[in-house]
């Protein structure tokens, strides 16, 4: 019994009292992305396992240790997406988007699944906001997506977040680097974890990203890729930095960043905060010039980033950043008796159609209990509707803050209430507005 009333380890519920923060954040992220020309893409939660093996990379932690993989009833191997890029790249290919004008800019908000050890900032189900820009090799694009992430933090008022930048070169310049890494790790191989021992032959760079403390310690003094990159990659990196400087985006070069996914080339970056504990990387991304080809498409240099919205929310909380709370109940209509209850149902329907948050009794409570409930849900106004009010067609609307009452014709309530409440509430704020031709429900929602 206990099992069914407990969410699965590493997953979490977001309750109605909190969800407005997620909604605000999601809207802000999509709005910012839109300004940069990124349009939302939605892809399935699960894909063929092979997509991630190929797209994320066989030797990555994600593929080797973290995927939720299972056979469906048709015997296909299915994996819950651990990240968004592979699915976006698959959609790009499947729908022939490479025939469209380049670059193709898409963004998404999606839940990802990784079988990791749950801890602060690390869950088994988590949401990522991501952007992908397909079809450009220009360093201007690298700087553009970095500035998008930067704009997110600036818009939200986040402080103390640093941009760490590196170049991990192309497959060409990586050949020499792999040789140097192999030589370095070969000498210390008896201390590497079993997974990294396997990586030594196949992909020694992955050892740099291992979470095992011993491997981390060994990797600390390993040769840095930045010392091995070829002239073209170096030129590209210099240019990215120049664009960032031009846009006044501060960065530090961190030669230790290699990123956890195999498909990255050239620019890689992370936005890191010290305010949320050990899982401080809020955003990570970079270039993946070879991915589309790896998946069977035409050569399409591309890039993107993923931002964990859970970690971003933790950071906003830690820095005391406030979210605009949505407005609650504007008016509670309290009917007395069956007849009034029918009238109340019709009145709230009209008010809602006009953009008002209107509530009435759907429990069958006494008037006293209804008033208590109206108070609990924070109703700004209440109206008691008895047989007398129904008979006379008039009723009083009471301002719950000031106690002041105003009489309305019931037949005109839905028509006049919105303007009335916006006037009242803006007056209470000490603002006097000319409301001619203005979208009143939009104002109401923002009060
Ligand atoms: P980490 O080093 O923290 O494991 P990663 O390199 O695996 O991160 P990416 O695959 O680049 O992360 O994912 C991009 C972003 O998604 C991360 O920077 C982080 O904000 C978020 N993220 C990744 N894994 C998790 C998780 N298990 N729980 C919550 N957020 C996560
Ligand atoms: Mg990880």
What topology does this entry show?
Layout: H1 16-35, E1 39-40, E2 46-48, H2 49-55, H3 61-66, E3 68-71, E4 77-80, H4 85-94, E5 104-113, E6 125-134, H5 139-156, E7 161-167, H6 171-186, H7 194-202, H8 213-219, H9 231-246, E8 252-253, E9 265-273, E10 281-287, H10 291-294, E11 302-308, H11 309-318, E12 331-335, H12 338-353, E13 358-360, H13 367-376, E14 381-385, H14 387-392, E15 394-399, E16 405-409, H15 413-428, H16 440-446
Parallel strand pairs: 1-5, 7-8, 12-13, 12-14
Antiparallel strand pairs: 2-4, 3-4, 5-6, 6-11, 7-9, 9-10, 10-11, 14-15, 15-16
Helix pairs in contact: 1-5, 5-9, 12-15, 15-16
Bound molecules: adenosine-5'-triphosphate and magnesium ion.
Write a compact overview of the structure shown.
The chain is an alpha+beta fold.
Structure description:
With 447 residues, the protein is of the alpha+beta class. The strands form three sheets. The protein has an eight-stranded mixed sheet, with helices on both faces. Strands 13-12-14-15-16 form a five-stranded mixed sheet, sandwiched between helices. It contains 16 helices and 16 strands. β12, α12 and β13 form a beta-alpha-beta unit. It has two domains: 245 residues, BirA Bifunctional Protein, domain 2 (2-Layer Sandwich); 89 residues, Rossmann fold (3-Layer(aba) Sandwich), CATH 3.40.50. The structure holds adenosine-5'-triphosphate and magnesium ion (MG). Magnesium ion binds next to loops.
């Amino acid at each position: 019994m206990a099992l069914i009333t407990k969410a699965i380890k590493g997953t979490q519920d977001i309750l109605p009292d909190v969800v407005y923060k997620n909604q605000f954040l999601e809207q802000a992220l999509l709005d910012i992305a839109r300004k940069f020309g990124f349009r939302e893409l939605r892809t399935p939660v699960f894909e063929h396992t092979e997509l991630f093996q190929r797209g994320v990379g066989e030797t990555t932690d994600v593929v080797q240790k973290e995927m939720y993989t299972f056979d469906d009833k048709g015997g296909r191997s299915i994996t819950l997406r651990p990240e968004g890029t592979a699915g976006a790249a698959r959609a790009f290919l499947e729908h022939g988007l490479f025939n469209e004008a380049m670059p193709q800019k898409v963004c998404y908000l999606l839940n990802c699944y990784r079988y990791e050890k749950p801890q602060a900032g690390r869950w088994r189900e988590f949401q990522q906001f991501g952007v992908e820009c397909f079809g450009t090799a220009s360093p201007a694009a690298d700087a553009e997506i970095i500035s998008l992430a930067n704009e997110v933090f600036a818009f939200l008022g986040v402080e103390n977040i640093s941009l760490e930048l590196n170049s991990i070169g192309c497959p060409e310049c990586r050949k020499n680097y792999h040789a140097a890494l192999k030589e370095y790790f070969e000498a210390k191989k008896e201390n590497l974890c079993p997974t990294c021992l396997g990586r030594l032959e196949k992909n020694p760079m992955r050892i740099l990203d291992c979470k095992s403390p011993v491997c981390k310690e060994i990797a600390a003094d390993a040769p840095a890729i930045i010392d091995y990159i070829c002239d073209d990659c170096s030129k590209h990196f210099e240019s990215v930095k120049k664009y960032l400087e031009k846009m006044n985006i501060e960065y530090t070069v961190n030669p230790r960043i290699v990123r956890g996914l195999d498909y990255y080339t050239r620019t890689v970056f992370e936005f890191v905060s010290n305010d949320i504990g050990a899982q401080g990387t809020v955003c990570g991304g970079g270039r993946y010039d070879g991915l589309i080809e790896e998946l069977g498409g035409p050569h399409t240099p591309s890039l993107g980033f993923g931002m964990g919205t859970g970690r971003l929310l933790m950071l906003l909380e830690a820095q005391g950043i406030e979210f605009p709370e949505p407005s609650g109940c504007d008016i509670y209509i309290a009917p007395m008796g069956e007849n009034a209850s029918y009238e109340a149902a019709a009145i709230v329907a009209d008010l809602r159609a006009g953009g008002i948050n209107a509530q009435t009794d759907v429990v069958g409570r006494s008037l006293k209990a209804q008033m208590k409930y109206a108070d609990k849900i924070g109703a700004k106004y209440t109206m008691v509707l008895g047989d007398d009010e129904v008979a006379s067609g008039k009723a009083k609307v009471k301002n719950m803050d000031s106690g002041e009452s105003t009489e309305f014709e019931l037949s005109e309530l839905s028509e006049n209430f919105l303007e009335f409440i916006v006037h009242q509430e803006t007056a209470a704020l000490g603002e006097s507005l000319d409301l001619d031709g203005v979208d009143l429900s939009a104002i109401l929602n923002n009060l």
